[in-house]
Amino acid sequence: MRLLVVEDDADLNRQLVSALGDAGYAVDTAFDGEEGYFLGDTEPYDLIILDIGLPKMDGLSVLEQWRRSDRNMPVIILTARDRWSDKVAGMDAGADDYVAKPFHMEELLARVRAQVRRASGHAKNEIECGPIRLDTKSARVTCDGDTIKLTSHEYRLLAYLMHHHGRVVSRTELVEHLYEQDFDRDSNTIEVFIGRLRKKLPSDLIQTVRGLGYRLSADPDAA
Ligand code: CA
């Protein structure tokens, strides 16, 4: 999952990027409204965290413009504790949720997980596909109850496929949703990680759909 953080407070921006990175997300960052607007308008984020008080272009205008041009990604706004009117205006402008500053990082992370899983059609924190179970809260993956040890890149890839299980996901989509903007995007690395995941998972769980991409499915005849 790839996220964007738009926050002009350099310290808070860094804390957010660090906490979200530790939680297994690829994170891009912007420090003013114009840059944030541009990135959100051109890159396919799975979720955006947007501060309301931003230089160059305020957060509400950024959000309104995204929604006007049908950018539908989940957006969580950051508001000042005492500005209830910002929360109302933000939700009316198309925000999916808000967190008031100062906040506990655990609360923000829980709200991020909820929005990301909702956006892919999952209501529960645990996503299952056949014998595989992904606990998005603890970032733990099990197969028939046994923990599968994954590197952070393997986890990112499997988490994306689990959120979208049953659907064909192209190599381009994977590259766009697994790596930060400035990452050297060589789509061959996807094949390498798919190969490593296949060795750790039951065979046939990750199917190659020739010319289209990959599908995670417990049903071998889904193709
Ligand atoms: Ca601010």
Please describe what this structure looks like.
The chain has 223 residues and is an alpha/beta fold. It is 40% helix and 22% strand. It has 8 helices and 12 strands. The strands form 3 sheets. A 5-stranded parallel sheet has the order 2-1-3-4-5, sandwiched between helices. A 4-stranded antiparallel sheet has the order 6-7-8-9, with helices on one face. A 3-stranded antiparallel sheet has the order 10-12-11. It is elongated and about 55 Å long. The mean pLDDT is 94. Calcium ion (CA) binds at residues 8-9, 51, 53-54.
What secondary-structure arrangement, pairings included, does this model have?
Layout (H helix, E strand, L loop, with lengths): L1 E5 L3 H13 L3 E5 L2 H10 L4 E5 L7 H10 L6 E6 L3 H9 L4 E5 L3 H15 L6 E4 L2 E4 L4 E4 L2 E2 L4 H12 L4 E2 L1 H8 L9 H13 L5 E4 L3 E4 L7
Parallel strand pairs: 1-2, 1-3, 3-4, 4-5
Antiparallel strand pairs: 6-7, 7-8, 8-9, 10-12, 11-12
Examine the coordinates and then state which fold CATH places here, giving the name of the CATH topology of the largest domain.
Answer: Rossmann fold
Shape: elongated
Largest sheet: 5 strands, parallel
- Approximate strand percentage: 15-25%
Number of strands: 12
Structural class category: alpha/beta
Q: Look at the structure and give the CATH class of the largest domain.
A: Alpha Beta
Count of discrete domains = 2
- Rounded to an integer in angstroms, the radius of gyration calculated over CA atoms is 18 Å
